[in-house]
Each structure stands twice: as structure tokens, then as C-alpha cells.
Design brief:
The protein has 3 helices and no strands. By secondary structure, it is mainly alpha-helical. The protein has a domain at 17-83: Helix Hairpins. Helix 1 packs antiparallel against helix 3. The mean pLDDT is 76.
């Protein structure tokens, strides 16, 4: 069984961090747009689904909180990875 190179794991981790961050930001923006504008009210009323508006806040506010937390987690992971790489680079330069 071949060993996985550390650089490959770092590339996979940074790709996952980027995907996590993009998902969090996109979800946050969608939730904010739905919460902050009456666009959703107009659209649901136009297609005859205005009865769903009674519970929409129970869904959108937790979704907004989840996506903001997901964005924060993605930023935290990205910062932690950057600090780790900076420490490794500095250690390698000192040992050379």
C-alpha cells in the first residue's frame, strides 16, 4: 500500500477548506437575500404558495445562523492551515 505524500494531503485539505468556505458564503448570501427583501414574499404569492410564509422565519433564521457558522468555521480552518504552513516553512528554512 503506497504512502500518501504530505503535500497531497495538504492540497486535499485546502480544497476541502475552500469548498467549505464557498458553501458557507453562498448559503449565507441566499439566506440574507431571502430574509432582507420581500422578493420571496412576492415570488411565493405569485405562484400561490403564500400560505408557506407563516413558517418561513422558522426556517430562514436557523439556516442563516448555520451558514454564518459554517463560514466562520471555514475561515478558522483556513487560518489554522496557513499558520501551520508558515511554521513548517520557517522551521525548514532554519534547519537548512
Amino acid at each position: 500500500m503506497p504512502a500518501i505524500r504530505p503535500a497531497r494531503r495538504d492540497e486535499d485539505r485546502s480544497m476541502k477548506d475552500a469548498t467549505l468556505l464557498k458553501t458557507g458564503i453562498a448559503g449565507s448570501l441566499i439566506a440574507v437575500i431571502c430574509c432582507a427583501t420581500p422578493l420571496l414574499v412576492v415570488l411565493l404569492g405569485a405562484i400561490g404558495l403564500s400560505a408557506w410564509l407563516g413558517w418561513i422565519d422558522y426556517v430562514l433564521m436557523p439556516a442563516l445562523a448555520f451558514f454564518v457558522a459554517l463560514t466562520g468555521y471555514g475561515l478558522w480552518r483556513r487560518q489554522r492551515a496557513a499558520d501551520c504552513c508558515a511554521t513548517e516553512t520557517q522551521t525548514n528554512k532554519e534547519n537548512s
